[in-house]
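Posted in: Structural Biology > Protein-Ligand Complexes

Title: Requesting predicted complex, magnesium ion in pocket

I'd be grateful if someone could produce the 3D structure tokens for the following input. Sequence and ligand are given below.
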Amino acid sequence: MTQYLESDCANFKAEDIEYASRIIINNGIVIFPTETVYGIGANALSDSACQKIFKAKGRPPDNPLIVHVSSVQEVEKYAHTSSIANFGALSKLWPGPLTIILPSTELISNVARAGLDTVAIRMPDCNLALELIRKSGVPIAAPSANISTKPSITDSEHLRRNFDGKVDVIFNGGRTKFGIESTVIYPQGDTCVIMRPGIYTEEYCKVIFKHVIFSEDQAENPKSPGTKYRHYSPEKNLYVPETQQEFLRICRKNPKEFTPICSYETGQLLKNVNAIILGNRENPYEIASNLYESLIKFDQQPGDQGIIEPFCGNGIYLSIMNRIKKAAISVKDGEL
Ligand code: AMP
Ligand code: MG
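-- Reply #1 --
Done. Output follows.
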């Protein structure tokens, strides 16, 4: 049976943390909030505990998990940090939405690492999560708490529907702050490669690294195995055109055929009452935080298919587009 606990990142009860940490220590599974999305967590030192995560999510076994720690110092227990020239500066970015791939020690479960000799580590910026890790006394492996290939969950109201009876504890922590997953980086001395863009952009990475580069197309031989899989996809077909103009043209041509998912400003131009609004076009934080919630809403609304507005720009816009491109089917101008 799943136990539901009413604590969130800012306000949590000591007895809830105590209860959930005992579950982790006994190799059970706990869903908890972080500042990015909800995580489905287990003892990162135990193969059998980590296996339960793969089973509950239906995650391919070759897609490794992110291991969560509660301090910068802890990293040295579980990984070799010499691949980061400026490791000491990490405390400027942690706790925060940044995951670092490092050579692993043998302590971390081979299942969590999907057999790789590296481990992805992050210190989340959510006091509940940090306290849970501390109380458990072990690092917690926790990928996003969603069924594999489906949109990540950023509001606890969707957790019961997906995971009731499949996990031991669910924290009902409301909405998460950022709404898209952490930036994943691969450090090499004073350079870092961004494997998966997130809320921490190139600028943030420059706090620690002299050079920041984006990984090239990883379709052939991905260093971050998760990037090769279908991701974040709603049940219904969702299309993404190349430009806002094309988005508007398609919506106007087929007002009944597609549910539009777009910014507030673009929605004003459409005047379609069924449009799902992502937020203000000028506020990428707002758009990121509403993205997955909007994809889930789209699946729950009537209508067979949808179309989502593309965003251009750097920084967080680039991360938003990374998720949209994985969730939706790209269409060329004139195709629809
Ligand atoms: P998720 O936690 O579901 O948002 O996904 C975690 C992401 O981190 C996936 O894209 C994984 O492939 C990636 N990842 C986790 N561990 C490693 C690792 N050791 N090396 C490279 N990528 C990793
Ligand atoms: Mg995920």
